[in-house]
Amino acid sequence: MDFGSGEYLCLQRTWENGDKIEVNFPMEISYRKWQVNKNSVSVDYGPLTLSLKIKEKYVKKNSTETAIWDSQWQKGADVESWPSYEIYPESSWNYALQLETGVTLKEKKTLAPGVNPFTPENIPLVFQAKGRIVPEWKIDEYKLCGVLPYESAVKSEQVDDIELVPMGAMRLRISAFPTCN
User: Fold this and answer.
1) What share of the chain is helix, strand, coil (3-state, %, to 5)?
2) What is the per-residue pLDDT across 26-48, written as a single tens digit (0 to 9) for each?
3) Which of 79, 121, 123, 136 has the fewest CB atoms within 10 Å around its CB?
4) Residues 25, 2 contacting (CB under 8 angstroms)
5) Are 153 and 134 a contacting pair, CB within 8 Å?
6) Residue 101: CA count within 13 A, CB half-sphere
7) Measured between alpha carbons, how far apart are the two ends of the chain, in Å?
8) Cβ–Cβ < 8 Å for 49, 34
């Protein structure tokens, strides 16, 4: 039974112990172009938006020094029990996506019931793509991802294999990419 956008199915019956319903949602790779964001492109797999898989480096910080201006520590609170971390990229992140080679599903694994799929350790879907580094796209003065470059920005000659994963599984996220040939 196929359903279009906005359609639904209502199951009315008397349910018995052990009854099961199996639902299959077809998932396809699609691309969204963001004209108002320098013609960048996002990759979707069904309802999931994909992000570049970036290796993360955690740097522990003193929470009393990193607290925002209106934060107040409760008297006697053990600051060491509530550490702060800054997260930095430990792998390249400033890629332009090569659309002509496409994005393909590289790995799909079944997780045990109750396992959170939105953690870097449990990512059930990994996609393969190709990309080129955009050298001028760098970390800014606030240690954040710099402004997305224009599609005309210079890209490296080298084409790299890159991995994309569901965006919700990453803390550092690049999900709107400049494009390249």
Assistant:
1) 10, 35, 60
2) 789 999 999 999 999 999 999 89
3) 121
4) no
5) yes
6) 17
7) 40
8) no
In this structure, which amino acid lies at residue 3?
A: F
What is the number of other CB atoms lying within 10 angstroms of the CB of residue 103?
21
pTM above 0.90, yes or no: no
Tell me the per-residue pLDDT of 101-116, one tens digit each, with 9 for 90 and over: 999 999 999 999 999 9
Instruction: Decide: residue 106, CB within 10 A, 0-12 exposed, 13-18 middle, 19+ buried.
Output: middle
Residue owning tokens 């009854």: 19
Q: How far is CA 113 from CA 3, 21, 116, in A?
A: 27, 16, 9
How many CB atoms within 10 Å of residue 50? 26
At residue 12, what is the residue type?
A: Q
H-assigned helices in the chain: 63-66
Sign of torsion, CA 11 16 17 21?
A: negative
Contacts of 62 (CB under 8 A, 6+ apart): 79, 84
